[in-house]
C-alpha cells in the first residue's frame, strides 16, 4: 500500500468539476474504496490501499454526481505483490515464541539501523502486519501457552521495543498475549518496559505503562488511520484523499 496511482482519463471522460471520481478495489476477502484528486482535466491521483494478501484484484473507476446514478467509467486488473515489509511481517508472525529465531533477530540491534530506516521499517512492517491473515489461535508469546511468566525468554515485544518500533509495539499490544509479554524477562533480566526506559524511548515507555495510552500518531506525517471493527479509514494529508477498507 501507500504507492501513488495516476489515472489518465480519455477525452469523453473529461467532465465538469462537480463530478467526483473514485476507485473501488475488489479482492477475494477485502474491498477498498479510494477518493481521488484532480491534477488537471485529464488526470487523477490517489494512493494504493494496503491489501490482506498477494493477489490480482479488480479495480473500477467510478464517477459520482449529485442527483445522478453512479457510473462505472472503466475496469482494470491490479496486482498486489510481495515486498520486503510483507516478508518481514510474515517472518515475525511465524517466529513468535521461537527462541532461536527471536535471538537471531537481535543482530539488528547490534547493526543499529539509521533512524530514518527504523521509521520506515516501523510504518511498513506495522502496516503489513495489520493485513496478515493471522491464525485464530495466534499469540504474541507463541503457541506454547503452558510456559509461565517466570521463565526468561525473548518475545516479539522485546524485539519491537529494542528497535524502538512504536507502531509495531502498539499493534502487538492489541493482540492476544501482548499485555502479558510486558512482564516477561529475557535472559538478561530485561522486560520490554525496562528496555524502553533503558534506551530512552520516552514515547514507547509511556505507551507501555499508561493505562489510557492511545494509538500513536502515524509515523508518517502524510497519513492518519482510524480503525473501527471491520472497517478502516485512512486520510492521506498530502493528496487529501481518503481510503475506506472493509471486509467484502
Summarize the structure in words.
This is AKP13 protein. GO terms for molecular function: MAP-kinase scaffold activity. The protein is of the alpha+beta class and 248 residues long. The protein has 2 domains: 3-81 and 222-247, no CATH class; 84-209, no CATH class. It contains 8 helices and 10 strands. The protein has helices spanning 84-94, 99-104, 107-111, 115-131, 156-162, 166-173, 192-198, 202-209, and strands at 4-8, 20-26, 30-35, 37-40, 43-47, 56-64, 71-79, 223-228, 231-236, 241-247. The strands form 2 sheets. The chain has a 7-stranded antiparallel sheet with strand order 7-6-2-3-10-9-8, with no helix packed on it. The chain has a 3-stranded antiparallel sheet with strand order 1-5-4, with no helix packed on it. A hairpin with a 4-residue loop joins strand 9 (231-236) and strand 10. Helix 5 (156-162) packs parallel to helix 7 (192-198), helix 6 packs parallel to helix 8 (202-209) and helix 7 (192-198) runs antiparallel to helix 8 (202-209). The longest helix has 17 residues, at 115-131. The mean pLDDT is 86.
Amino acid at each position: 500500500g501507500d504507492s501513488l496511482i495516476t489515472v489518465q482519463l480519455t477525452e469523453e471522460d473529461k467532465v465538469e468539476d462537480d463530478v467526483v471520481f473514485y476507485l473501488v478495489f475488489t479482492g477475494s476477502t477485502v474491498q477498498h474504496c479510494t477518493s481521488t484528486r484532480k491534477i488537471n482535466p485529464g488526470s487523477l491521483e490517489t494512493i494504493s490501499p494496503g491489501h490482506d494478501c498477494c493477489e490480482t484484484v479488480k479495480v473500477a473507476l467510478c464517477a459520482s454526481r449529485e442527483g445522478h446514478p453512479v457510473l462505472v467509467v472503466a475496469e482494470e486488473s491490479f496486482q498486489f505483490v510481495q515486498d520486503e515489509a510483507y516478508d518481514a511481517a510474515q517472518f515475525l508472525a511465524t517466529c513468535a515464541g521461537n527462541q532461536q529465531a527471536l535471538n537471531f533477530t537481535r543482530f539488528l540491534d547490534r547493526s543499529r539501523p539509521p533512524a530514518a530506516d527504523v521509521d520506515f521499517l516501523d510504518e511498513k512492517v506495522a502496516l503489513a502486519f495489520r493485513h496478515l491473515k493471522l491464525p485464530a489461535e495466534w499469540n504474541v508469546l507463541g503457541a506454547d501457552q503452558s510456559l509461565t511468566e517466570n521463565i526468561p525468554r525473548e518475545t516479539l515485544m522485546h524485539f519491537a521495543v529494542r528497535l524502538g518500533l512504536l507502531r509495531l509495539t502498539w499493534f502487538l499490544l492489541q493482540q492476544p498475549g501482548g499485555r502479558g509479554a510486558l512482564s516477561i524477562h529475557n535472559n538478561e533480566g530485561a522486560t520490554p518496559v525496562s528496555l524502553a526506559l533503558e534506551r530512552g524511548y520516552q514515547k514507547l515507555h509511556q505507551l507501555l505503562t499508561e493505562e489510557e495510552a492511545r494509538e500513536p500518531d502515524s509515523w508518517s506525517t502524510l497519513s492518519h488511520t482510524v480503525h473501527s471493527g471491520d472497517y478502516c479509514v485512512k486520510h492521506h494529508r498530502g493528496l487529501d484523499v481518503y481510503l475506506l477498507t472493509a471486509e467484502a
